[in-house]
Amino acid sequence: MPEVTNKYETVMVLSTKLGEEGAAELVERFKTLIAANGTVESVDDWGKRRLAYLINKESEGYYTLINFESTPAFTAELDRRYNITDGVLRSIIVKKDPRYADQKKPEPVEEPKTVDVEAVAAEAMETENIPEE
Prior knowledge:
With 133 residues, the protein is of the alpha+beta class.
C-alpha cells in the first residue's frame, strides 16, 4: 500500500541568543531533517521580529516558514524534535487543506502611477489651441 503524503507548513521562532549564524544553522538542520523524510517545497526566512509577549524573557525571535510534503507520522517526530531542541522558542506544524494546497498566492497589484496634473493640463491647452487669458 502506498504511503500517504500530505502538504504541511511549519513556522518556528528561534531565540535571538543564537545569533543570525546560529539561527541559520538550526534552520538548515531542520530543513535537512525534513528533506530526509519528505520534500521541502520552500523556505521563507522572515528574519528577526518582535514577539507579542515575552517568551523565556526574550522579546524578539527569528521567524522561519517551511512548506513541505511528508507522511503524517513524520510530523509527530518533527514536533518532538522542536520541543527538545535548545533555541526553539515556539513552533507550529499545520496541515494544508488539499483543496487549497496547490493554489498559488495572488500576484501583487501594481501601484497606480502618479500623474503630474499641471503637465497634463498644459499639454491639453497646447493641443486644443485654447487662447490663454
